[in-house]
Design goal:
By secondary structure, the protein is α+β, with helices and mostly antiparallel strands. It has a single domain, classed as Alpha-Beta Complex (Peptide Deformylase), CATH 3.90.45. It is built from 3 helices and 7 strands; from the N terminus they run H-E-E-E-E-E-E-E-H-H. The strands form 2 sheets. A 5-stranded antiparallel sheet has the order 1-2-3-6-7. A two-stranded antiparallel ribbon has the order 4-5. The longest helix is centred in the last third of the chain and has 19 residues. Bound molecules: zinc ion. Zinc ion binds next to helix 2.
Length: about 180
């Protein structure tokens, strides 16, 4: 397995819409494992291929609270697609590995149903609410070139991007 580099906003690659996987091969399974390793190391609870510069519709997640003694529960989604969203909405404070250090309340549909392929190329459906629903929508947004800050006001988004640019510039002069 290999750890991948996580892109940080603003980055044009994060704005791209990823292409569907046409065949579930060993290469795809390896990418999913590398993405999980990268996500655990970060650490994060979800990661989309777009965030590591891979143009494929792949998402990994693990919502287990291992600090509270829960067993890791890795989830892998190939070509995830939202098939239904609730009218009811919910607010959750979200963060993102591509928008480090910023956490903001995001309003989204409270429940969602997602169709995807598993590692064997078989279709499955996941239905969730709460953190699972928010995380699924957040990660699928990534595959469509959207970040959680795109759900915020234009002013707030501009402020966060400005600060991220400042941090990036600072990092490039560090020796
Ligand atoms: Zn994210």
């Amino acid at each position: 397995m290999a750890k991948l580099k996580i892109l940080v906003a603003p980055d044009p690659l994060l704005k791209q819409k990823a292409h569907p996987v046409t065949e579930v091969t060993d290469e795809i399974r390896t990418i999913l494992d590398d993405m999980l390793e990268t996500m655990y190391a970060a650490p994060g609870i979800g990661l989309a291929a777009t965030q590591v510069g891979i143009d494929k519709r792949l998402v990994v997640m693990d919502l287990a609270n291992t600090e509270e003694g829960e067993e890791p529960a890795p989830m892998k989604f190939i070509n995830p697609e939202i098939i239904s969203l609730s009218e009811e909405e919910a607010v959750l404070e979200e963060g993102c590995l591509s928008v480090p250090e910023f956490y903001e309340d995001v309003i989204r549909p409270a429940k969602c149903k997602v169709k995807a392929l598993n590692e064997n190329g078989e279709e499955f459906i996941t239905e969730g609410e709460g953190l699972l629903a928010a995380c699924l929508q957040h990660e699928i947004d990534h595959l469509d070139g959207e970040l959680f800050i795109d759900h915020l006001s234009r002013v707030k988004r501009a402020m966060i991007i400005k600060k991220l640019i400042k941090i990036k510039k600072h990092q490039t002069v560090k020796m």
